[in-house]
Amino acid sequence: MVSKQQVLHLVDQGHGYPEIGRILGVSAGQAYLVATGIPADGSDTVTTRQRKRLGMLPSRSQRLVNPREVNPTHSERVHGWIRDRAKRDHPTR
Q1: Do residues 7 and 34 touch, judged by C-beta distance below 8 A?
Q2: Would you tell me how many other CB atoms lie within 10 Å of the CB of residue 27?
C-alpha cells in the first residue's frame, strides 16, 4: 500500500503525479488522493484551507483520472498481415 509520506516525498523531489504513479505502481489519480485526501476527479468541493495542503495541484487535477486515450491509426503488424494475406490470395491478384 502506498503511503502519504511516500507520495509527498516524491512530490517534494519535483516528480509529477503521472511519474509518481509509475514509480509506486498506482494510478496518478490514486497517488493524488493518497497525498491530498482529495479525489482528483473534481467530485469534491475543495475549501480554501484544503487548497493549501501539501501536494495539491493549483488546478486541473481531473486530467490525472482521465488520461488521454491512445488510438493508434497505424500498425505495422496489421499492415504486414494484410500484405501477407494479399500475396496468398491468388484469385484476387
Answers
A1: yes
A2: 17
| Contact yes or no for 68/75 (Cβ under 8 A) | no
Full pLDDT tens readout for the chain, 93 residues: 899 999 999 999 999 989 999 999 999 889 988 998 888 876 666 666 766 677 777 666 666 776 666 777 888 899 999 989 988 888 766
- pTM of the predicted protein model: 0.58
Q: In Å, what is the CA distance from 82 to each residue of 71, 88, 90?
A: 20, 10, 14
Q: Do residues 50 and 42 touch, judged by C-beta distance below 8 A?
A: no
CA distance 20 to 42: 20
Q: How would DSSP label each residue in 26-89?
A: S-HHHHHHHHHSS-TTS-S---HHHHTSTT--SS-GGGGTSPPPP--S--HHHHHHHHHHHHH-
